[in-house]
Structure formats: C-alpha cells, structure tokens
Amino acid sequence: MAVWQGHSPELRAQVRACAARLRDGFAASGAVPVECPILLPAATLLDLYGEDIRGRAYVTSDALRGEQMMRPDFTVPVVQMHMNGGAEPARYTYAGEVFRRQEEDEARANEYLQAGVEIFDGADPAGADAEVFALIRAATAGLSLRAATGDIGILMAAVGGLQTSEARKAALMRHIWRPRRFRSLLDRFAGRAEVPPTRAALLAAADPFAAAGPQLGLRSREEVEIRIAALKADADTPPVSDREVALIDAILAVRETLPFALEHLRDIAVDMPSISSAVEGLAARAQALETRGVDIAALDFEAAYGRTHMEYYDGFVFGFYAEARPDLPPVASGGRYDALTRVLGRSAGRPEGIPAVGGVVRPGLVVELGAQIGGES
C-alpha cells in the first residue's frame, strides 16, 4: 500500500472503515476514544527527539503559536493529554492520520492512518505489557504475522551499571537508539579506538586558545572552555573493561525464543547484576503473556530489537510483520515508554510520570494484506 494520496476514494473508505473497527475493538476492551490535534508544538517534539525529527516530520510556522509539526504519531499528544489531568489507571484509543517524510523510501506512505491503544497503569506493568500485546495480536489475527519482541530496558540497565563516569553512561544512553554511534562510543570509551589527532593536540596543549584565531560562531569562550574541560575529564577516565564490553555484546547477541532468551539473560546477569531487575521484569512479562494465551515457547525475543526506530521506548518493545512481504514496514508495533511520561509530566506538575505502554496498527496494511489472503480487514 503505497502513497495514501493516490488511493481511490473506495479504497480510502475501506481503510478508514478498518481504522474505525480497530478503534471500536480497543474501545470494547475498555479504552476511552480520544481525538488528538494534527498540529503539535515543534519545540516539544524537538526536546524529545532532537533535531533528527526535522528530517522526518512536516514543519510549519504560525504567527501566534510559533513553529508547529504535523502529527508524526499519537503517543506524544495522548501522553500530554493524560499528564494534564487524566485519572489512573487509564486506557485510551484513537484513529487518524500521521505524517512522516519518506525521502529514502518512496514506496512507503508519507501520510497514513494509525489506530492504537495506550495504557497508563503502574499497578502491574507486566500485566499491562501483556494486555497491549494481546490486544494488538487480536486486532491483526488472521493475517499470519510474525511477532518480534525485545526489551530495551535490559540494555539500559547494563549501561547504567557500567564502572565508568556518569558522563560516559549518559552519552551511551543518548545513543542507545543509534547502534552505530553507540558502538563507536563504546569502543572509544573502552580504549579500542584511536583518539583523533585534532583532539589529541587539543588535550595536549597547555593553552588551547593560544593559537586560536578570532572568535567565530555562536558559542561563547566560556562554553568552549567547559567543553574542553569535559574532554580532558573524559581522557582521564579509565577505560571500560573488556569484560563489561563483552557482557554488553553478549546481551545484544541474544536472539532466541522467549524462554531460552530469558535463561540466557539470567546467565549473563550472574556476571552483570545491574540487569537482574530488568531480566526479572522480562520473566514477569513472559508469565503475563502466557496467562493471556500467548505461546511464549514460539515467541521470538531479540535483545537488540527496536533500537533503530523506537526512540522513546525504554522497556518492552514489539512488532508484527508480514514475512511474505519483507518490503512492508511493521503492520503493528508498540512498547513501554515510562520515561516519556516523566519528561512530558514536568510541564504538568507531574515529574514522577506514570508507567505506560501502547501499541499501534496500520489499517492500510491490514486492508492490503487482508485482500491478498482473501480475509476480512
């Protein structure tokens, strides 16, 4: 299903009807239907995602409201709405268009419909994870999709437990969703990568400003001095041990069915206790999934899953894929985003946030795949 704008009115109506059925199904499970604005304050999204979002979102300006972005997803506005006065626990559902630039893949739509469900409930996070997964699985039943799961929280716990400086751990945390940059930083912090000649010269100079020309750019001298001091402090920090790097590599290499993955991760936790709590959270989720009728013995788990396209998730992540159509994006996906609620809760006076998890389905792909197999959408 390519560009939404090129579809016939009949097909558009089918996709909208599918989105409405999905939303109604989530509502029948207890979720409250909500509407979200299409235009969102750009500053909020830039704070969350960084400037990278500019390359993937449609940005406009308003004389009164300033820079705005067309809605790239529903999670952020739903979280904002909830943190501004929603009661707990709470379940919401929605359906509508999202907008994302697709300059590198013309086959993918830049405007398409999403239908989803979000759960805000701190009483039983594992149960909420299992509930969302089961709801999304039921919504896509009959399409013969492969489910993939992961848990970004395990890698985050591993980074948090490293025997290194807080600055280095913060840098690694920022780039967990960028595997190449994460690997580059880890190698540098482990002393496996050569220091660039320009940086080595800067660190060796008694007075880095002695040979400097006139001050250019927006940074003040004070800001540059702070940056140089940070680089010197990093250079004096002992390297991350080979043992810890090997343990992180072992975590990232876990790719098995859920019971075997859990066993493997428990073995790793013996040598890396910092991940023990996250691993036991995975065990609780596995039990909750099994209680909801999920065959966990056949459920794939990849510790590295979700690192390239799920930037605000910080725990359970999942996706449903049409294996016969590798050209398609996930038909459905979702995960846990507790940290996002803390960030967006600050402006609402609720910096403690609340555990939350959600999932979305792409009705256009449901219709397309349903037509291909002769099933209902």
Automatic annotation (TrEMBL):
Molecular function GO terms recorded: glycosyltransferase activity; histidine-tRNA ligase activity
Annotated residues for binding of L-histidine: 73-75, 100, 114, 118, 312-313
GO biological process: histidyl-tRNA aminoacylation
Keywords in alphabetical order: Glycosyltransferase, Transferase
Domain Class II Histidinyl-tRNA synthetase (HisRS)-like catalytic core residues, every copy: 9-348
Keyword Glycosyltransferase among record annotations: yes
NCBIfam families: PRK12295.1-5 (NF008952)
Protein name: ATP phosphoribosyltransferase regulatory subunit
Organism in which the protein naturally occurs: Primorskyibacter flagellatus
Taxonomic lineage of the native organism: Bacteria, Pseudomonadati, Pseudomonadota, Alphaproteobacteria, Rhodobacterales
